[in-house]
Amino acid sequence: MHHCIQARSQKEPSAGDRLLSIAEVAERLGTGERFPRRLVAERRVTFVKVGRHVRIPESAVRAFIEANTVQPVRHRRRRYARAV
């Protein structure tokens, strides 16, 4: 089995979790459909096979976004202004 870093909430989808199509995931991420298809192919996001269709739980999309969100770095202010 392929092991990769996964967000803690990427478990099995809950009963009330909405399943999104590739197009819906792409729209939420602001990308083309190729990107969520690649996430599925590389097993980087939880997905469900419904016959030949692929659906991604809404919670998995949220977890993916949280896991890949980079917080800004706070810069220290200088105590003294530079001399000109």
Describe the structure.
This protein is of the alpha+beta class and about 80 residues long. Helix content is about 30%, strand content about 10%. It has helices spanning about 20-30, 35-40, 60-65, and strands at about 20, 50, 55. Strands 1-3-2 form a 3-stranded antiparallel sheet. Strand 2 and strand 3 form a beta hairpin. The N and C termini lie far apart (about 60 Å).
List keywords for this structure.
single chain, 84 residues, alpha+beta, 3-stranded antiparallel β-sheet, 3 helices, 31% helix, disordered N terminus
Envelope shape: elongated
Number of distinct beta strands = 3
Name the beta content range.
5-15%
Q: Which percent range fits the helix content?
A: 25-40%
Please provide the ordered H/E string of secondary-structure elements.
EHHEEH
**What's the average pLDDT?**
85
Q: State the secondary-structure class.
A: alpha+beta
- Please tell me how large the radius of gyration is: 19 Å
Q: Biggest sheet: strands side by side, in what order?
A: 1-3-2
The N- and C-terminal alpha carbons lie at a distance of 61 Å
Number of helices: 3
Task: Point out poorly predicted stretches.
Answer: 1-10
